[in-house]
Amino acid sequence: MDNVLKADNILTPAAEVPGIGRNSLQSPPSALNTDPASQSQADTFDTIPPTPQAQRPPTLPYQIINSLTSTIGGMANSASAMPQQQGREAASPTSSYFPDAPHSNESSSSGELGNAGQAAKNHGVENRKRGYSGSRANRSLSNASVGSGGVSLGLSLTNSTLFYDIPMSDALSDLIEKHISPEKRPRRESVELSDVEKLKTADALQELVNRKSWRSVARFTRNRIVQTNPSHLAEILQLWYVRLQALVNLRLYQLALAELDKLGDLNRQEYTFEYHQGLFPGKSGIMIPFELRVLSANLPGLMKHYNASIERLTILAMECQRLNSKEDTELWRKREVSLYIMLANFLLEIKDFPLTISIMTKIVNTFSNGAAEPDVISTLGRLYLQLGNIQDAKKVFKGLESQEASDPHVKRLVRMNSALCHVAAADWSPAKEELDAILAEDPNDYEAVNNLVVCLIYLGELNQAIAVMEDLISKSNDQAHGLIEKAVFNLCTLYELRSDTAMEKKIWKLQQLHPYLGDGFHVESFKI
Amino acid sequence: MASPNTARSNPLAKPVPGSPHPTSSPQPDDSQQPHLLALKVMRLSRPSLGTQVTAYVDPQASPMSAALTSSNEKKDQEKRHMQNEHSKIDIRNFGLGEALVLPSAFGNIYLGETFSTYLCVNNESKEITHEVKMKAELQTSSQRFNLADTNDEPLAIMEPGQSNEFTISHEIKELGVHILVCSIQYTTVEGRSRSFRKFYKFQVANPLAVKTKVNNMIDGKVFLEAQVQNVSANTMMLERMKFEPAEHFLHEDLNFFKAEDNKENALQSTFGSQYLNQHDVRQYLYLLTPKNAEDDRIARTTNTLGKLDIVWRTTMGEMGRLQTSQLTRKVPILDDLQVQAFNVPSTQISEDGQLVKGIRAEEPFSIGIRISNHSAQNMKVVLSAVKAKMGSVLLSGVSTRQLGDLSPEQTIETNVEFFPLSPGLQKIGGLKLVDLITGYIKEVDHLCDVFVEYDD
Question: Is the model's pTM score more than 0.80?
Answer without folding.
Answer: no
